[in-house]
Amino acid sequence: GRASRNGGGANGLGVSFEFFPPKTEAMEQTLWTSIERLAPLSPSFVSVTYGAGGSTRERTHATLARILSETTLNPAAHLTCVGATSAEVDAVVDDYAATGVRHIVALRGDPVEGIGATYRPHPGGYAYSADLVAAIRARHPEVEVSVSAYVERHPESPDWSTEIDNLKRKVDAGANRAITQFFFDNDLYSAFLDRVAAAGLSIPIVPGIVPVLNFTQTAKFAQKAGASVPPWFAARFEGLEDDPSTRQLVAAAVCAEQVLDLVDRGVTDFHFYTMNRADLVYAICHLLGMRSAKPAPASGEAVAA
Ligand code: FAD
């Protein structure tokens, strides 16, 4: 039932987990092993991404449908408006709602030509995520809406007032919460919260946490996303390129340090970019005091990676 699709830790902390739709049978297996391991932690919601330019539309939908039919988790569906008409996007929103999805992460998306290309709104589409938020609100008032936030500014925002004005437009359009792009320096997050508060915005700004499964990959991804990698952070992974088991231990320690420091700063909700892997995130949630009634066995992915 709907009421049981509500997580929430006994210790007042809440977590959510982000997954991407699998491309192959093997990836599907990995995803479901991870979902089964993380589900007993009773996350507030689990979100499923929408591939660049809608490339995973069917797979995103299929993953959401399977979560709804096989678990009691509360799924959130990502949706972007790039490269599609508003009628096409509305149809996806209606399909989500008809399937039983009650939470959408509303995004603009990146130019289909790749990050770095100039974004151009589709002539018949929603231009920015604030427009998508308004459309979802109008069509399905019962659907919860989350949006993005960038503690280091979105790469296309020339200054902070542009950035905060955009967040304000999304809040005014009806967004319930923002989830941040990942970051490694918690001071950036605190400074961002100050800017948000100064603008009079009061929606939760949930930190997006990325566990570093592979530093080289994460650094590349960070550069594309406009997230900085502080030298002290990079130094922690130095020389571990060929040492996966030490890398995993360091990754857990580094992520724990970040998350526990955020708790000290008053953060109560965390969104984990899981990359469809469970073990590291499960360990961090354990450190946050979360316990599952019937833990599934560790997958051994940490040593296998
Ligand atoms: P917006 O909030 O629309 O803002 C984008 C830029 O446009 C900003 O610089 C803003 O200042 C500017 N802007 C806004 N309104 C106007 C206006 N009226 N005129 C001029 N400029 C304006 N991408 C995917 O493809 N699939 C996903 O599933 C996905 N999930 C994500 C989840 C999270 C939590 C985050 C943080 C990002 C995610 N992304 C995803 C990436 C996202 O699509 C990109 O970062 C994209 O570049 C911006 O999308 P947005 O919704 O943040 O944009």
UniProtKB/TrEMBL annotation:
GO terms for biological process: methionine biosynthetic process; tetrahydrofolate interconversion. It comes from the Bacteria. GO terms for cellular component: cytosol. Its EC number is 1.5.1.54. It catalyses: (6S)-5-methyl-5,6,7,8-tetrahydrofolate + NAD(+) = (6R)-5,10-methylene-5,6,7,8-tetrahydrofolate + NADH + H(+). It holds the Pfam family MTHFR. Keywords: Amino-acid biosynthesis, FAD, Flavoprotein, Methionine biosynthesis, NAD, Oxidoreductase. Its cofactor is FAD. One of its GO terms (molecular function) is FAD binding. SUPFAM superfamilies: FAD-linked oxidoreductase. Pathway: One-carbon metabolism; tetrahydrofolate interconversion; Amino-acid biosynthesis; L-methionine biosynthesis via de novo pathway. Belongs to the methylenetetrahydrofolate reductase family. This is Methylenetetrahydrofolate reductase. It comes from Kaistia hirudinis.
